[in-house]
Amino acid sequence: MRDRVEIMGVPIDKGNLNDARERFIRLLEEESCSTIITPNTEIVMEAQKDHKLLNVIKNADLVIPDGIGLIYASKIKRKGLTDRVTGVDLMYKVLEYCDRNSKKIYIFGGKPGVSEKATENILKKFPNINVVGNRSGYFKLEEEQEIIENINKSEPDILFTGLGAPKQEKWMDQYKSQLKVRVAMGVGGSVDIWAGTAQRAPEIYQKLGLEWLYRLKKEPWRYKRMMMLPKFMIKVLLSKEI
Length: 242
Ligand code: UDP
Known about the structure:
50% of the residues lie in helices and 14% in strands. The chain has helices spanning 17-29, 41-49, 51-59, 68-76, 87-100, 114-125, 144-154, 167-175, 190-195, 203-207, 211-218, 223-226, 228-238; strands at 4-7, 10-13, 34-37, 62-63, 104-109, 130-135, 158-162, 183-186. The strands form 2 sheets. It has a 6-stranded parallel β-sheet, sandwiched between helices. Strands 1-2 form a two-stranded antiparallel sheet.
């Protein structure tokens, strides 16, 4: 049984990183394709207007709170989310598991060459993983069937999808029934972090819940999207129920 809370109508799984890892292992035992997604505050706000996105989140098999705003909101309204569980950290745990159990993965996403570079670095750290395929995340609509066929032919256990949010969530949801993988996980910019083309915020920012500030400094053009965070907090503070 899943233990979930709703933040502004968006269901999110409770628990810490280890609980998320345990659920991933259970999902891996199932034949059909399960999806793991990692929404942050921006995505929860986007889902208020985008009902397709809301349904995609409702359909996902594990939804972890990858946004400090979600944890603040939960604390203020006593919803029961205690830990921020990031996609980067869960991806690391998944890779660690795949290494110990010689699982097969496919990395789909990023600019040309990025998933290959990420593969190289992943294999340095986790040599027992079998990376059965790579593909950049830039493609035309008419290429999608060929992409799915290529993934299926490679027979990965896990598909990491890094197309940015909410594109990756919608893509995985749309093709879930066609994908012959056990788990498809949306990993956004984590592929870039593995490739070394982006850096994660230093630990001090992570500890202080200021990863968003680091990102704003590095990618100032994202400020419009990031304005969602204060908007979200105001909404939380002004509403009786969220
Ligand atoms: N990306 C991609 N295809 C696209 C759009 C984005 O592969 O059509 C990749 C992009 O190169 C980057 C990753 O998705 O590696 C994350 O993008 P972004 O930073 O916009 O998303 P977020 O981290 O907010 O999910």
